[in-house]
Known about the structure:
Elements: H1 6-23, E1 29-40, E2 50-66, E3 70-74, E4 81-84, H2 93-106, E5 114-120, H3 130-145, H4 152-166, H5 174-181, E6 186-191, E7 197-201, E8 209-215, H6 225-241, H7 258-282, H8 290-302, H9 309-320, E9 325-329, E10 336-342, H10 346-359, E11 366-370, E12 377-378
Helix pairs in contact: 2-3, 2-4, 3-4, 3-5, 4-5, 6-7, 7-8, 9-10
Enzyme class: transferase
InterPro entries: Galactokinase, Galactokinase_CS, GalKase_N, GHMP_kinase_C_dom, GHMP_kinase_C_sf, GHMP_kinase_N_dom, GHMP_knse_ATP-bd_CS, Mevalonate/galactokinase
Family: Belongs to the GHMP kinase family. GalK subfamily.
Amino acid sequence: MPTPDIHAIELAETAAAAFRDVFGAEPEGLWAAPGRVNLIGEHTDYNEGFVMPFALPFYSVAAVAKSDTWEFHSTYGGGDTVRTDTLEGVEGWAGYLAGVAWAMNESGYPVDPVRIAINSDVPHGGGLSSSAALECSVIIALADLFGHEIDRTELARIVQKTENEYMGAPTGILDQSASLLCTEGNVMFMDCRDFSREQVPFDLAAGGLVMLVIDTQAPHRHVDGEYGARRADCEEAARQLGVPFLRDAPRHAKLDDERLNRRMHHILTENERVLATVAILKQGNVAGIGDLLTASHVSLRDDYEVSSVELDSAVDAALGAGALGARMTGGGFGGSAIALVEAAAAPKVEAAVIEAAADKGLPVPRVFVARAAAGAHRVL
Length: 380
């Protein structure tokens, strides 16, 4: 089990205080799960391809105790409290909590009513997996409280069931796996077919580099129809080719439908970029992945058509100011971008990104330096 992150402990103290204030009792424990950045490998997870995320030092913390009723409290969004007699049909932020308990019961890991107080600083709507962090903090809490020893790969599948069947979001398994399985100081190379994984060292400081995360402040939502439409395109392309998933398509396959060809081209070339990134990082050459990041963005923009004016502005401005590579990260249609930058150039790149947004009348981006943090863990 990873050592609790200092920042996670601070968030946990607030969650525990909220639990006491709202429920008049002490929580039985506090569990934290991080948001994530996907270094490269976008929309490949539901095509049984390759991904490469790392955990961010932003966490959702769940303060939890057994109870006679289901009660959910959030310290954000106005400090709402939701009480329910049934796990069916809970909506909004509380739906992610109820959905995890529902999915555990459906998956053969019974849980009884609990009280949960949630505190999180994972940017909401930023494409940094705020919902997965929320769900993963709750699932490790429930597994601990009810004595279920569940492999973390299985936990990720249960959280995916929450997203797909309870919340109605057709997501793959990337976000949950990243929150549950990433380790400090590494990016996680994962094969989404067999869930085999390898922690690959990601030492930015040794190369005099930083990774900037640019939250464009343009909200990103997985439940919107465009995400599902991309997944449907991939499924149709695979059907026409007679393969189980686009990962299995021949490299130079060709379909009559040009849109489906573009979708397929992105998946095939993105998988190649992930494998190339792994090889370069294993050589200790972090700066060498810059061109791959930028190529990934171009593919997501042109072939997969999931970028946005805000994301393109951030990427173009970062590259123009000297970033070694930049790309949108996450599902797209808003959210965040990342930029690999020489540490000395970070202020210049940040200023250029903010200035470009202002010139275009876009929301002011939030820019911060990312590090590869610890995955989900019990805090106290």
